[in-house]
Amino acid sequence: MAKPATQLRILRAMRLVKYSKQGYSVYYSLVECHVMNLYREVAEYLKETEV
After folding, report:
1. Of the CATH numbers 1.20.1250.20, 3.10.20.30, 1.10.10.10, 1.10.3330.10, which one belongs to the domain with range 4-48?
2. Which of 13, 11, 17 is nearest to 32 (CA)?
3. pTM, whole model, 2 decimals?
4. Mean pLDDT score, 42-47
């Protein structure tokens, strides 16, 4: 499994998350709320299709 930093870099490249730096800390957030809605729908679908 990829490290969280690698996963976040991929999500940034796909323009799904944005980040801001405050001192040594980096904060990530979703670019738009419809991304979370899409995630929830996919998660729900996967729950329904589990065997």
Report:
1. 1.10.10.10
2. 17
3. 0.60
4. 92
